[in-house]
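Moderator note: this is an archived Q&A kept for reference. The question asked for a predicted structure of one protein chain; the sequence and the answer are reproduced below.
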Amino acid sequence: MRILKTAVLALCAVLLVSSAGLAADTVKIGLLVPLTGPAAADGTSALYSVQIALDQVNAAGGVLGKKVELVYYDDRADAKEAVALAHKLIEQDKIAAFVAGSYSLPTRAVAPIFQEESIPLVAAYAIHPDVTRAGDFCFRNGFLGMVEGKAAGYTAHKLLGGKTVALLTSDNDFGRTLVIGFKEYASKYAPDLKIVSEQAYPFSEKDYKPYLSKIKELNPDVIFASGYYFQTGPLLRQARELGIQSKILGEEGADSPKLMEIAGDAAEGFHIVTNFDRDDPRPVVQGFLKEFRGRHKFEPDMVGASAYDAFMIIMDGMKTAGSTEGGKVRDAIAAVKDYNGLTGIIGGFDEIGEVVKPVQVQVVKDGLFRHFGVVNDPELIKP
C-alpha cells in the first residue's frame, strides 16, 4: 500500500512539473472586448484585429521563443462584468499582460486591478483620464479625450474654416471630456471661433431632430457632433433630412463601417478626428488593411487598428525587456520611442502613460473614410 501511495505521489509530481512546463511554453495575453450589446461591432473589430496581430507574432516565432496565447472575454461594455472577468484573467488564466479593448467605463473599472497586480495594461481606445491615473502599469495607445477634443477644435477652425460652431455631444464620460478639450482649444487658440450652441443628448437617444432643429436656426459653419457610430449615424441622416447644410465633424467613436450602413448617403462629407489613416502608405498599414479585408470582407476601423497596436506594443515591450515579468515589461513600454505603429509613428508615452502621436483627420468619400488632414502641433497632441 505504501509503495502504491509513493508511486501515485511521484506520478502527481511528474504531472505537475509537466503542466508547469507546458504553461511556461506559452505567454498568455488577456483581452476584454464588448462582443454583445450596442458596442458589439467595435468589440468584434478589436478582437479580429488582435487576432491578426497574434497570428503575425506566432508566425514569426512568438515572443522570447514561446507561443503567444490570447485569452479573451466579452465584457458587454459593462463595468461590473469587466471587473469579474479581470479577476478571472488574473487568478485563473494567469495572464502576463492585458489589452483593454473596451470603452472607458469598463476600462476605468479594471485599470486599478491590473495596477495592483503589477500586470501591464495597454488601453486601445478608451479615452477617460482615469485609465492611466490608476498607476504606472497602465498605458493608453488611443488619445486622451482632451487631446482629441483639442484636435477637433483645430479641425473645425483651421481645416474646415469654421467661424461659428455648435456642439452636440453624447452625455457621458466620452462626450463630456471631448467638449472640455474642444472648448480649451477655442479659448486658448481661436478667439475668433464662436460656440453658438452647446447641447448634450442622453446615451440612449434615438431622435436628434429636436436638438438639430435648434442648431438649424443658428446655421453654424460647423457642427461638432460627438458620439458612437450608432448615435452619429442616425444623427447625420436626420440632419440632412432637416436640410442642414453645416459641415459636420465627429470623432473616433464614429470611426466604423457601420456608420455608413446607418447613415447612407448622409455620411458623405462627414469628417472625423481619429486614430487611424487608411491612406498611410507604410507597409504595416497597407498590409493590415489587406489582411483584414481578406479575412472578414468588411472595412477595418480605428478601434481595430488601436487594439492591434496595443497588443503589438506589449509584444515589443517583452522583446525589448527580454522578459515577461511585469515590471520589466512596464519599463520597456514606458521607454518606447518612435515606434512604427499601425496608428502612426508613436513618439513614446509620457510620465503617466499617455501616448504622444499625431491625430488623424478623415473624411467620408464614396462611402469610405479617406485621408483629409493631420493634427501634429506638439501643443495640441501633448497629453
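Archived answer notes: The two ends are 69 Å apart (CA to CA).
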